[in-house]
Specification:
It is built from 15 helices and no strands. By secondary structure, it is mainly α. It folds into three domains: 91 residues, Serine Threonine Protein Phosphatase 5, Tetratricopeptide repeat, CATH 1.25.40; 62 residues, no CATH class; 67 residues, no CATH class. Helix 2 packs antiparallel against helix 3, helix 10 packs antiparallel against helix 11 and helix 11 crosses helix 12. It is globular and about 70 Å long. The N and C termini lie far apart (52 Å). 45% of the residues are buried.
């Protein structure tokens, strides 16, 4: 009866509801409102909220940009086990943003985030394992992490797996496998994959030789900012019969326009 007379007390929003509301606000660009939710939660020790506060300070979203505060909040999130916080702290160490540059610490945190399932950290860890500047080169482990990231949709990881097969890094050289992985990278929008698949089509490595498709892919790669594209671009263009380059430009434009249309 009392409930009927006075009404039920409003149930406090759950943690998940608060985090969801903050995400929605941030997606709309209402960063100050999102930060007003994340801030108190971060001070209560909620790892995901702490990581998001760090992102706000890192990018100046709803608050002044402050790399040191960003790194502090990433540390709170990372030490509390948040994979995104661990990856962002790793990036802070790698770039020297708000903390002294420390590649060993970057590697350690990228690995923790990768092991926790963070796809972007898996991608970066695979790159570090191939570069060999911070940790010893381990091509087999690099492929394992790149494939894990690729399975989560990371386009650059797809391209890297293709390079691993192309360059025979810890595997036998397999031009067809390389081309298949680059094709996946192209579908996911990676410009370097477009460059490498374009070169493969020009040379007939792992795929049937197709000069028109090669040029089309290289134009798309160049438009997408791939430095690799320039390595092959002029040679492929010079090999085309008259009028083929213009046709390839038109084909690339059609594909790029189709990609830009909403699904």
């Amino acid at each position: 009866m009392l409930a009927a007379l006075f009404g039920k007390a409003e149930k406090p929003a759950s943690l998940e509801d608060q985090l969801a509301e903050a995400r929605t606000l941030a997606a709309r660009g209402e960063n100050e409102a999102a930060l007003a939710i994340w801030g108190p939660l971060a001070h209560q020790g909620v790892a995901r909220a702490a990581g998001n506060v760090g992102v706000c300070f890192l990018s100046g979203l709803g608050v002044g940009r402050d790399l040191e505060l960003a790194a502090r909040w990433f540390t709170v999130a990372a030490e509390a086990g948040d994979p995104a916080g661990q990856r962002n702290l790793a990036a802070s160490f790698f770039q020297g943003h708000g903390v002294a540059q420390d590649y060993d610490a970057a590697h350690a945190w990228y690995r923790r985030a990768a092991e926790a399932g963070d796809a972007e950290a898996q991608d970066m860890l695979s790159w570090m394992l191939l570069e060999g500047e911070v940790v010893a080169v381990d091509a087999r482990e690099a492929r394992r992490w790149a494939e894990a990231a690729a399975a989560r949709g990371v386009a650059s990881a797809m391209t890297r797996v293709g390079m691993i097969y192309h360059d025979a890094l810890g595997v036998e050289r397999d031009a067809e496998a390389a081309a298949r992985w680059w094709a996946k990278g192209v579908e996911a929008g990676d410009a370097d994959a477009m460059a490498m698949l374009g070169a493969a089509n020009h040379l007939g490595q792992g795929v049937e030789r197709d000069p028109m498709l090669a040029m089309t892919l290289l134009i798309m790669a160049k438009n997408g900012g791939s430095a690799l594209a320039q390595t092959f671009f002029n040679a492929v263009k010079a090999s085309l019969p008259p009028g083929f380059f213009e046709k390839a430009e038109a084909a690339a434009a059609r594909i790029e326009q189709a990609r830009e249309k909403p699904a």
